[in-house]
């Protein structure tokens, strides 16, 4: 039986890891492939994902405390990958932009066994220096990314946005546009046991609060500080769902949710009415889609990948990224307009039917076997 190995830089909570876990779970239930998730031992953070019992989780190296040890673990990871490619019928699926710069170490004869699953605008993802910290490191990363874009691998993308950004930078116009969408576990994220709001009821808001500057939590907080008291009086709660450290923000007015699992996130969504996303850009942006499944109204920045399912004035209100006035006006309109909220909720029900982990897993298997 052929084996699929998903490679990730760590195994903490995060959109890219969630995609790999859910695709692995679906393929596991098909019974067509052996499955493994492998990562370097570069973080002590944990996740709350539910993983099928027959999926092997492999950690490479000793827990690293500094950059040099992390790089050594990455070396051990790729040594492991090359040995597996030599000895068995296996496909390697890798997404992380930094780990992917090491793909040149894999002999050319095995490159057809590599699927580069691009889930972001990889070339620009570290431009804010939040992760790399250093412009020299950023320049080296960009150079290696361009070099690796020339490798003859199999490619998959999570949205038309990420495909477009890849083509712009790589100039590889002969790469097939294979889109494999993230999806939602409908057993967890659904609108069951959700009370219908009356027109005069107060509304509640949820958002995923991240420390990363790309996510622009600052924009939401600035908008909130300028929101008219009349509008605030219509809001019962604002839930900030986060596993990040948020000490640099003043969040005393809000309820912080530190979720232990997806059920806790879904339950927060089910008692919320409006989901807000403020990112400058997203490869796909899974939380708004999960919120749609839970019967929420979406108010989101027009962040690129969100266009796969969020359509302005049809099932969502979109605003220009970074435009705090548009964010504020959009929230006021949604709070004041019950008919518009009901329209977006009904149209959202039609949209979410198109997204399924099993469907995406079958598309991935077709790419692996091509």
From TrEMBL:
Keywords: Transferase. Pfam families: Glycos_transf_1. It comes from the Bacteria. InterPro entries: Glyco_trans_1. Residues 193-350 form the Glycosyl transferase family domain. This is Glycosyltransferase. The lineage of its organism: Bacteria, Pseudomonadati, Bacteroidota, Flavobacteriia, Flavobacteriales.
